[in-house]
From TrEMBL:
<keyword id="KW-0732">Signal</keyword>
<comment type="similarity">
    <text>Belongs to the Wnt family.</text>
</comment>
<dbReference type="GO" id="GO:0048794">
    <property type="term" value="P:swim bladder development"/>
</dbReference>
<dbReference type="GO" id="GO:0045165">
    <property type="term" value="P:cell fate commitment"/>
</dbReference>
<dbReference type="Pfam" id="PF00110">
    <property type="entry name" value="wnt"/>
</dbReference>
<comment type="function">
    <text>Ligand for members of the frizzled family of seven transmembrane receptors.</text>
</comment>
<keyword id="KW-0964">Secreted</keyword>
<keyword id="KW-0272">Extracellular matrix</keyword>
<keyword id="KW-1015">Disulfide bond</keyword>
<dbReference type="InterPro" id="IPR018161">
    <property type="entry name" value="Wnt_CS"/>
</dbReference>
<dbReference type="InterPro" id="IPR043158">
    <property type="entry name" value="Wnt_C"/>
</dbReference>
<dbReference type="GO" id="GO:0060070">
    <property type="term" value="P:canonical Wnt signaling pathway"/>
</dbReference>
<dbReference type="InterPro" id="IPR005817">
    <property type="entry name" value="Wnt"/>
</dbReference>
<dbReference type="InterPro" id="IPR009140">
    <property type="entry name" value="Wnt2"/>
</dbReference>
<protein>
    <recommendedName>
        <fullName>Protein Wnt</fullName>
    </recommendedName>
</protein>
<dbReference type="GO" id="GO:0030182">
    <property type="term" value="P:neuron differentiation"/>
</dbReference>
<keyword id="KW-0325">Glycoprotein</keyword>
Length: 350
């Protein structure tokens, strides 16, 4: 028995559910009937999504398995923020009522999750995990770059295929709704997909006498997902508050001094809560119990993180590697040393 994120209640569009169920891994290979039963019982999917779920059970499995990667990246990017991309297993979706708002945090969640789907699928294609795709078939023959000519070889990540599938599946609900929130979600989904493609790099292997590189074999590869996360975090910092235009087809800046958003910007409608206190209605988990940095003046500092409520200090013992010595050849031997450190945690609201 394996724990699978069978809840590709992935309805990235409204809930981003993650129902974790104990199911036998062989379910995914039971064929059409098994796929239909499972896909028909995932709440929240529209007909198009159910159809794709039935047709591509291995793709759904790959998406579910890849969810932990983009959630982990989201939590890394906001690890020192009052809102730290925390998830809850007690609610009907990963982020609770947070997703009911149209805040910049929600804009980031949609963008990073959409990017995560593209990255996961492209990687699964390149690794040969899926029957429906493999390496990019268009990268054949010869081409040129600033260094000269090269031959296509290796396995280029098929990002275009992953983007098309992601757009069809993830955007299906929003394309059916077409209200203001749907427009916002579609925009941020697209910004996330474009972010993955933005960091495709040409990797090459040299051939020739004595490594002269007279002949090169190259392929296109996705960069580490951290680069996508860093990029989207910058877009979060510069996210544009918008209003729907008079035709209901696009956005205008919410304030006259704001720039008009580009296709790469993240957009949002509502101001964010301060995330200081636990508030079920806004989806805020509060900062009570969060570790803070007593000497920092930044977002991770105790004054900011704890919202002026103060903090508690406790002394804990940590094991660290010390007195490391290099031994020829070729090992490093260290001792385990105990170190007493002060840990500061935000007081809870009274």
């Amino acid at each position: 028995m394996n724990l699978l994120p069978s809840g590709i209640c992935f309805y990235l569009s409204v809930a981003i559910c993650w129902l974790t169920a104990e199911v036998d891994a062989s379910w995914w290979y039971m064929g059409t009937l098994g796929s239909q039963v499972m896909c028909d019982n995932i709440p929240g999917l529209v007909n198009k999504q159910r159809q794709l779920c039935r047709q591509h059970p291995k793709v759904m499995q790959a998406i579910g398995a890849g969810m932990k990667d983009w959630i982990s990246e989201c939590q890394h990017q906001f690890r020192n923020h009052r809102w730290n991309c925390n998830t809850t297993v007690r609610d009907h979706n990963l982020f609770g009522r947070l997703l009911l708002r149209s805040s910049r945090e929600v804009a980031f969640v949609y963008a990073i999750s959409s990017a995560g789907v593209v990255y996961t699928l492209a990687r699964a294609c390149s690794q040969g995990d899926l029957d429906s795709c493999s390496c990019d078939p268009s990268k054949k023959g010869s081409s040129r770059d600033s260094k000269g000519s090269f031959d296509w070889g290796g396995c280029s990540d098929h990002v275009e295929h992953a983007m098309r599938f992601s757009q069809t599946f993830v955007d299906a609900k929003e394309r059916k709704e077409r209200d203001a929130r749907a427009l916002m979600n579609l925009h941020n989904n697209r910004a996330g997909r474009k972010a993955v493609k933005r960091f495709m790099t040409l990797e090459c292997k040299c051939h020739g006498v004595s490594g002269s590189c007279s002949i090169r074999t190259c392929w296109l590869a996705m960069a580490d997902f951290r680069r996508t996360g860093d990029h989207l975090r910058k877009r979060y910092n510069g996210a544009v508050q918008v209003a729907v235009n008079q035709y209901g087809t696009g956005f205008t800046a919410a304030h006259t001094h704001f720039k008009r958003p580009s296709k790469n910007d993240l957009v949002y409608f509502e101001d964010s809560p301060d995330y200081c206190i636990r508030d079920h209605e806004s989806g805020s988990m509060g900062t009570g119990g969060r570790i803070c940095n007593r000497t920092s003046r930044g977002m991770d500092g105790c004054e900011v993180m704890c919202c002026g409520r103060g903090y508690d200090t406790s002394r804990v013992s940590r094991t660290t590697k010390c007195e490391c010595k290099f031994h020829w050849c070729c090992a490093v031997h260290c001792r385990d040393c105990q170190q007493q450190v002060d840990v500061h945690t935000c007081k809870s609201q009274t």
